Fold these 2 entries.
Entry 1:
Amino acid sequence: MRAAYGVETVRTAERELMARLPEGALMQRAAAGLAAVCAGLLGRVYGSRVVLLVGSGDNGGDALYAGARLARRGAGVAAVLLDAGRAHRGGLAALRAAGGSVAGDATAALARADLVVDGITGIGGRGGLRDAAVPLARAARESGAVVVAVDLPSGTEADSGEVRGECVRADVTVTFGTYKPGLLVDPAREYAGAVRLIELGLDLGAVEADVEALQHADVAALLPAPGAGSDKYRRGVVGVVAGSKRYPGAAVLAVAGALRGGAGAVRYVGHGADAVIARFPEALVHAGPPSEAGRVQAWVIGPGLGEDAGGALGDVLASDVPVLVDADGLRPLEPEMVRGRDAPTLLTPHAGEAAALLGVSREEVEAGRLVAVRELAALYGATVLLKGSTTLVAPAGGTGAGFAARPVRVNPTGTPWLATAGSGDVLSGLAGALLAAGLGAMDAGSAAAYLHGLAGRLAAGGAPVGAMDVADALPGAWRGVVGRGRTAPGTPSGTV
Ligand SMILES: NC(=O)C1=CN([C@@H]2O[C@H](COP(=O)(O)OP(=O)(O)OC[C@H]3O[C@@H](n4cnc5c(N)ncnc54)[C@H](O)[C@@H]3O)[C@@H](O)[C@H]2O)[C@@H](O)CC1
Ligand SMILES: [K+]
């Protein structure tokens, strides 16, 4: 599990550690790690040209001390100071002592740079870059040099992943002590490039993370494996209420996701029965209503249902098994239809659907995904999976002591190729199968998103894919996770 902690938690842990270490030791650890990453990127340090963008806080201090280390190894290092009077004193003295200089002309220095170190702001930055820093962020991007962000790309919000206005776009971000939520969650994640963590020795063991990302080994441990005594009910029967005369394909894709997701059987209810049976003769079909379709261990309702989702939705939500509500099923959904349920409910909106549920604009959701997913989980008292380039899963929330904030999970395996019609229908079926197998809503949602992302990558292989290709790639993704998870717990490829 990869954990990310917010600014307040990081500051507390840093204070505790600093109290036990000689003064400045922590910043030296950070600077040493930063310099090592920069040296690796430069290849040959001697003779290279490095420009430091230096704000007036400790983030600038890290950049200056790292610059001093590179200067000692023969790099030409020039610092651009945002506020000459407030630059980190010790760091500036160290840079000068090592032969580095302060740049008189920032534009000229940036134009010749091989590598730019962004030390404008770190976890102390607030509210988007200030005016004086904006042209520097832009010039860094346009310089063609490799851009390394210190702790986080300046201008991005560490806690929320929000980006307000111009910000630095990094090729690599060297972060200290722990990941920050903004490094894992879009839109900020996009600006971070590849993220490298430098351990500082912070003690965060007893603290709940704000955001966490499952890795192969975590997912492998969650996925059910049928035993000798398994029958279809033990593996989990999924009820799928999806598709309509107008959208029969959604029914096929949701059923495909459920079957490839390991369901013992799928009971399909709706107008797409002919299409479902034609493709999956093993599916059990029923004209409805869902409550009369027979025993299931979880329901999936919504993909391609069209306008008349209301009746079936009430029927399914009245059941005592887990329910996943997606797409058209979300439209008639009111908080009170979900809040009173004893069994888990998992809502899986994309940004547009989440916006409609919250009564805000789609742009607002896209800009503040972490806030939006938590708000929805609180409003509906349900687990919420917000689809997107970084899919988020928030635990069922609410107010009061029973709902201490638990981590939101961010999926690290997504690929832009998944943004294709019907891909969400496959995800619904897959998550439904995991719910039916007995996983909790958080685990089912996040493991499904993980497998779905991997399947998307496998199916795409760098080229466009259709939703059925993604469903067909699920067994391969599953095998990859289980195989690798058992033998070598590791991270998926990608920048996170
Ligand atoms: N506290 C510690 O023990 C350690 C801190 N470290 C570094 O220290 C950083 C935090 O340092 P600080 O708390 O000094 O804060 P920062 O250096 O992140 O930012 C604060 C400074 O930026 C200015 N600023 C704030 N918002 C701005 C904006 N929107 N545009 C432009 N300037 C803005 C402020 O006036 C202030 O001078 C971390 O991100 C990390 O890089 C590391 O050295 C590791 C150890
Ligand atoms: K920075």
Entry 2:
Amino acid sequence: MPIVKLASLPTIKRLPSYLHVVEAAQKDGKDFISGTIIAEELELEPIQVRKDLAITGIVGKPRIGFPVKELINAINSFLEWDKIHRAIIVGAGNLGRALMGYAEFKRHGMSILAAFDPSTDKIGKTICGVPVHSLNQMVNKIRELDVHIAILTVPSDQAQAVAELLVKAGIKAIWNFTNVKLKVPGNVVVQKEDLSSGYAVLAVKMARQHGSV
Ligand SMILES: NC(=O)c1ccc[n+]([C@@H]2O[C@H](COP(=O)([O-])OP(=O)(O)OC[C@H]3O[C@@H](n4cnc5c(N)ncnc54)[C@H](O)[C@@H]3O)[C@@H](O)[C@H]2O)c1
């Protein structure tokens, strides 16, 4: 199966920010929001916002803007956030625990059903409502719980071996927080995440604005 390439990747990455702004407008009791207001909030060009939002199929009205409720539904639907995504976490350490405790994921359909870790201090415990199991239960639990997404927060030297186990168990997508480029079959989606990218942008922006400190 070919690797899925998304032409609209930057747009997809901006959609959650749009959703935050539009949800805030809904909380303020607004029925409509203009592309210009969204653009101002996010320091983007209005044309960019309108182009991005067109991908969700929702059309704004001249001088009135976008209907807030429909826009929220359209963004959630485009992002597949209106569906339940059954997930597990492998590696219940510092990062794994932080992700288990992040309530936004639940609000957006991500249901973390179990975590797996070899540490006897963690097995049998519950972290933020998520039960931690031993690694030798992983394959059976993935099948039993009908899980499709695995969040990988293991030490880097364990990443490839764990990924291979996940693929064998039938996992369809791996959200990879390790710094390893995983080798998996083409039908398994891998999304690699790196907080350092954000830090890099922050540091360079700060240097440009204030000079090196
Ligand atoms: N992408 C990012 O921005 C980012 C940020 C922080 C950490 N990380 C990466 O995430 C990973 C975890 O970082 P951390 O700070 O949580 O480390 P940590 O040491 O706190 O946690 C790692 C956990 O994995 C468990 N583990 C070890 N071998 C395992 C295996 N084979 N299967 C399942 N679990 C196993 C350990 O017992 C531990 O609980 C590391 O690879 C780190 O480099 C990435």
